[in-house]
């Protein structure tokens, strides 16, 4: 990768992170988070996107929390009756997580208001074509998954051998 391409990649990444931080601050300031925090909503939303129960590590792939922090947050949501835990039939030591009826209702109530805020912010800044491009770019980046592919040697540089 050439230096200018590397620089462009880093500038694009910084722009994406800055946009994310700015929008998240804006969304967090909205008066819809009284019953659940944004992080709690993130867990409820991620669970709502799945047809059935999911393991904690699966849930962790969709949220920006460490495993210990996610475990504590799920515990609090379960104590409030928003998430239920059940033994995993495939693995007696494992636990599967799902929304309760109250959790699903809470997610829908907050999610509907949040969707309005997101639509207002995004449509105010982007054209329909830009929104399509942003969605395609986001999906493409998300599809990379982990781990990163190994770095490719620069074609004009000899790599040192041990």
Automatic annotation (TrEMBL):
Keyword vocabulary terms for this entry: DNA-binding, Transcription, Transcription regulation
Annotated coiled-coil segments of the chain: none
Annotated GO biological process: response to stress
Single GO MF descriptor: DNA-binding transcription factor activity
Regions crossing the membrane: none
Pfam family, one: MarR_2
Domain spans labelled HTH marR-type: 9-143
Region (Disordered): 138-162
Top-level division of the source organism's lineage: Bacteria
InterPro entries: HTH_MarR-typ (IPR000835), MarR/SlyA-like (IPR039422), Tscrpt_reg_MarR-type_CS (IPR023187), WH-like_DNA-bd_sf (IPR036388), WH_DNA-bd_sf (IPR036390)
Protein name: DNA-binding transcriptional regulator, MarR family
